[in-house]
User: Fold this.
Amino acid sequence: GQQLNQSPQSMFIQEGEDVSMNCTSSSIFNTWLWYKQEPGEGPVLLIALYKAGELTSNGRLTAQFGITRKDSFLNISASIPSDVGIYFCAGQLPSGSGGSNYKLTFGKGTLLTVNP
Amino acid sequence: ETGVTQTPRHLVMGMTNKKSLKCEQHLGHNAMYWYKQSAKKPLELMFVYSLEERVENNSVPSRFSPECPNSSHLFLHLHTLQPEDSALYLCASSQDWGRAHGYTFGSGTRLTVV
Assistant:
């Protein structure tokens, strides 16, 4: 099946620092998604990307859909303690007839710890 | 309030027990999903229901049995589980099957098999 390589596995940073994480794949995806999961909760969608080269921001978060469609990165600027959690990338490509049904493939996640 | 509610939040069961996980969504979505989340592994899709019909079954052992009585409710029936089945089980829903940006996850059930 499809696999996503997400790095780094974990990060320990100081409050105020910028953060960068990325996902790569050997397969082409039509959609890239970034989720955040806080302790004791399910993943929550942060940013969705639909076009190669697309750069999208959500507050202090910025994500890009790689030109090759095989990678994506997420940046967090000026980190704060509430940014702690696990960040997942996910890629989606069409499967089944008519391209109307899609499989979502997740990375293993990046655990972010922010020291105040 | 995420719109997807899972119960129980925590469950400890013996290998000979039978238990069920429940998921309920109040979002009017047509598709519901079960995922397994294990430490240091990607989320694993287990089952997909679209309009109450099972449309995806990713080689999941028969000791896991899903049930979708209506578009708002999804169950995962468990019996004779193994310790390696201990994980966080997440339910999700979306407007239609595969609408990635519309996935809403529940908070999960933390399952421990002893």
